[in-house]
């Protein structure tokens, strides 16, 4: 059962209230889970039961995504704003330097949390930011098309598509290598999360100038890439390894851009190994 927490941050217009929806389960060392752009915390549901057996798992809806409110007026959706917000969230939850795992946008945020020493370890699954300019344009164009399609489709059509394996491939085939494995309810909810993501456009705009080249030193870093990632191509993992030489680079065979549903057991093992 998800919950909400509110806390105050400094904004260019003065103190502002942030409201974040999250799901928390399990016991052990804390583990923060961060989803990708247009997604929600439920992207992690396939792996949470395994992770929660060894970790205090906190899966969050990033501000402006899922059921979390947009950031206060005057705030951007760039790293310089969102990373301190995540630090403030951890403080509000009573969590000191959790392990963190992130996918796509969440992977980029996880790495930046690591650079700022706000976490104990980082596991980044197909993290954003290691693209060439042409690869970035391709990924952003694909994401815009997905967002536009989710907004344009009538809800009865989305619901009908979600009920068949072929329809789920239409809805989620860009991010999953095995979209038929996603349940109809999950596929429908993901489409609603994408079309209702108030932070989508501003987050995409903030990402235009990002090209990650800085190392993450002084803590364990794991970078994992799906062999069938169609959004951020797997060669970007090699660039990530060059930028972060001490990182462990892991291949996820048969997995797409959001690997947690394609192979939950493998992804859970990679996260747990990376946070030991």
Task: Report on the architecture of this protein.
The chain is 39% helix and 19% strand. The chain contains 11 helices and 8 strands. The chain has helices at 48-52, 79-92, 105-115, 133-152, 155-162, 165-172, 184-195, 200-206, 236-243, 259-262, 264-274, and strands at 3-11, 14-25, 29-34, 55-60, 99-103, 122-125, 221-226, 248-252. The protein has an 8-stranded mixed sheet, with helices on both faces. α4 crosses α7, α5 packs across α6 and α5 (155-162) packs antiparallel against α7. The chain starts with a strand and ends with a helix. The mean pLDDT is 97.
| Percentage of residues in DSSP E strands | 15-25%
| Widest beta sheet: strand line-up | 1-2-4-3-5-6-7-8
User: How is the quaternary structure best described?
Assistant: single chain
Q: Determine the fraction of residues in helical runs and give it as a percent range.
A: 25-40%
List keywords for this structure.
276 residues; alpha/beta; 8-stranded mixed sheet; 11 helices; 8 strands; globular
Topology of this protein?
Layout: E1 3-11, E2 14-25, E3 29-34, H1 48-52, E4 55-60, H2 79-92, E5 99-103, H3 105-115, E6 122-125, H4 133-152, H5 155-162, H6 165-172, H7 184-195, H8 200-206, E7 221-226, H9 236-243, E8 248-252, H10 259-262, H11 264-274
Parallel strand pairs: 3-4, 3-5, 5-6, 6-7, 7-8
Antiparallel strand pairs: 1-2, 2-4
Helix pairs in contact: 4-7, 5-6, 5-7
């Amino acid at each position: 059962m998800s919950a909400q927490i509110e806390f105050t941050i400094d904004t260019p217009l003065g103190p502002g209230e942030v409201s974040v929806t999250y799901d928390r389960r399990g016991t052990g060392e804390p583990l923060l889970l961060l989803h990708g752009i247009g997604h929600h915390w439920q992207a992690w549901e396939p792996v949470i039961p395994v992770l929660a057996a060894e970790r205090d798992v906190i899966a969050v809806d990033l501000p402006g995504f899922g059921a979390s409110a947009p950031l206060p007026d005057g705030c951007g959706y760039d790293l310089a704003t969102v990373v301190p917000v995540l630090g403030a969230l951890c403080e509000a939850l009573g969590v000191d330097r959790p392990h963190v795992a992130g996918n796509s946008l969440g992977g980029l945020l996880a790495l930046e949390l690591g650079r700022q020493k706000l976490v104990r370890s980082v596991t980044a699954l197909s993290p954003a930011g290691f693209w060439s300019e042409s690869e970035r344009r391709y990924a952003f164009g694909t994401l815009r098309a997905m967002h536009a399609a989710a907004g344009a489709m009538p809800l009865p059509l989305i619901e009908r598509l979600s009920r068949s394996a072929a329809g789920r491939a239409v809805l989620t085939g860009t991010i999953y290598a095995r979209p038929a494995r996603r349940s109809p309810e999950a596929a429908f909810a993901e489409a609603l999360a994408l079309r209702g993501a108030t932070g989508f456009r501003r987050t995409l705009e903030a990402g235009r100038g990002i090209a990650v080249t800085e190392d993450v030193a002084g803590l364990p870093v794991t970078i994992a890439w799906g062999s069938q990632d169609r959004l951020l191509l797997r060669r970007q993992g090699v660039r990530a390894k060059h930028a972060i030489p001490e990182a462990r680079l892991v291949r996820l065979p048969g997995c797409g851009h959001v690997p947690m549903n394609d192979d939950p057991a493998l992804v859970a093992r990679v996260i747990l190994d990376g946070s030991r």
